[in-house]
Amino acid sequence: MSRPHSSSHDDSRRGIKRPNQHIGDSSAPVETSEHNSWLFTEEEITETPSRVQGLPEHAELKVVAKTAQFIQECGGELQVPQLTKSVAVKFFQRFFMLESMLNHPPPLVAAACLFLSCKVQETHKRLKDIIYWTVKVRTRNTKDFPDGMDLFENSPGYYEEKNNILDKEREVLRVLNFDLTVDHPYKHLWALTKSYLGSDQVQRSITQAGWNFLNDSFRTYLHVRYDAKEVATAAFFMSAKLHNHKLPDGTTRERSTGKRILAWHEFFKTNLHRVEEVCKILLDMYELEDKASSVFKKGAGVIESVPPKHPAKRRKTENVKLESTPIDNEPRTRVEPYTAYR
Predict the structure, then answer these.
(1) Which pLDDT tens digit goes with each residue over 260-290?
(2) How far apart are the first and last CA of the chain?
(3) What is the pTM for the complete model shown?
(4) Rg for the chain, CA atoms, rounded
(5) Beta strands in the chain (DSSP E)
(6) Ranges for the Cyclin-like domain (predicted)?
(7) How far apart are CA 43 and CA 221, in angstroms?
């Protein structure tokens, strides 16, 4: 895989919206909010540098999940917002799409990504605080340090740890080519719930459930394979289904204006089949006995929830051109520690 460059991309790669494109026209690129250079194919993900060097797939995925948990815990101790923690996870995953885990200690890279994310998100934390909590969290529950090691500025090994993190931060910047653009799925989830659910208790409950799904999604490679809007749309669908809330399917209209209300998947012009893939990957994370998993076995899935004649149901790939239908031409309204990786 070649390293992404910060030079300008053509319109089709960046998913720039062009005029006169309808929901049913799948020749139109999906509206993406991130550089597509940071979205990898399934084949590329199965051939990461780590796996090429011999790291088994299950071991790599375990590191990805454990690191997300590690960053969440460290960020919680540092009292940084969820967005800062999610950006750090994205930096980490992007880095290891281009570098091998066998060459760079994941917890050290995670600490550097968290430090860098705090700068990018303007939730500034002192490096000594990053060092203290990342070391303390990664050494918890060990034989010598049941509560974690306290590494202060006057402690032996402090400056070695400091130099290691700073070196890794420079390495992360080099590998990412200083492209620190990150789109947050949380804001897209909020846009969906606010537009479709109003501001009552249902809206709050579904938003919270969707937020939890997004938090869990960072334990996988979803965010280097799918756009933030696709992940947010999948989380929105899953949370609504979890609460047995029926979402608009594109067949209802506003009483006052007569305009058709966009279906839940039309809001961001997402591809239904990609949204369904995201849902399946999320559900694979949970045990079959889990309550959330059992709920999704009942009722209509992503594809089944769409009216039979809707063009989006037939759109399996972005490159298949479909004929425009009357419905498309109508006015629309948007209502861990080192030991944790063993």
Answers:
(1) 889 999 999 999 999 999 999 998 887 533 5
(2) 28
(3) 0.76
(4) 22
(5) 260-261, 332-333
(6) 69-174, 187-284
(7) 13
**331 confidence band (pLDDT: 50, 70, 90):** very low
C-alpha–C-alpha distance, residues 245 and 248, integer Å: 10
Q: How far apart are CA 322 and CA 236, in angstroms?
A: 26
Q: How would residue 161 be classed by pLDDT, with cut points 50, 70 and 90? A: very high
pLDDT at 144: 86
Which residues partner with 260 through β-bridges? 253, 332
- Beta carbons of 116 and 176 less than 8 angstroms apart: no
Distance CA 223, CA 35 (A): 12
User: Residues 6 or more apart from 173 whose CB is under 8 A from it?
Assistant: 116
Q: Are 59 and 163 members of one domain?
A: yes
Where do we find the tokens 């340090």? 145
Instruction: Report the pLDDT value the prediction gives residue 301, as an integer from 0 to 100.
Output: 58
The total of structural domains in the chain comes to: 2
pLDDT digits (tens, 9 = 90+) for 54-104: 999 999 999 999 999 999 999 999 999 999 999 999 999 999 999 999 999
| Encoded tokens for 293 | 């998993």
Mean pLDDT of the chain: 79
C-alpha to C-alpha distances, 102 to 48, 50, 55, 96, 213, nearest whole angstrom: 12, 6, 8, 10, 30
- Full domain range(s) for residue 163: 37-175
Q: Which of 116, 146, 175 is the last residue of a domain?
A: 175
3-state secondary structure of 57: helix
Q: Is residue 14 part of a domain?
A: no
